[in-house]
Amino acid sequence: MIVVTATLASIGSAAVPSAGMVMLVIVLGQAGIPEAGLALIFAIDRPLDMCRTVVNITSDAAVATIVAKSVGKLNQEPKK
Questions:
Q1: Contact (CB, 8 A) for 45 and 32
Q2: With b meaning 16 or more CB within 10 Å and e meaning fewer, what string describes 3-23?
Q3: Shortest CA distance to 24 belongs to which of 51, 4, 5, 1?
Q4: What is the pLDDT of residue 61?
Q5: Is the full-model pTM beyond 0.85?
Q6: Are 31 and 4 in contact (CB under 8 A)?
Q7: What is the DSSP annotation of 7-51?
Q8: pLDDT by residue (tens digit) across 8-64?
Q9: Which of 9, 10, 34, 57 has the highest Cβ tally under 10 A?
């Protein structure tokens, strides 16, 4: 049940900054671990959250560019 809860909680958390803490509270609650230990994680979560957000945005932009190029929507001059 913990794996299902973690998977469902993480589906939408990559696109939302600081949503990782909410996901962590949900998973810890399902596992029966007290949420009081989250205070120790708050200090290092923000830089890690920024790294996750950068990776998510970069991959979204890369896929959008690849799709746009494959359907001919980029305004590029043909190579000579």
A1: no
A2: eebbeebeeebbeeeebbbeb
A3: 5
A4: 93
A5: no
A6: no
A7: HHHHTTTSSSTTHHHHHHHHHHHHHT--GGGHHHHHHHHHHHHHH
A8: 776 766 667 777 777 777 777 778 877 777 777 777 878 888 888 888 889 999 999
A9: 9
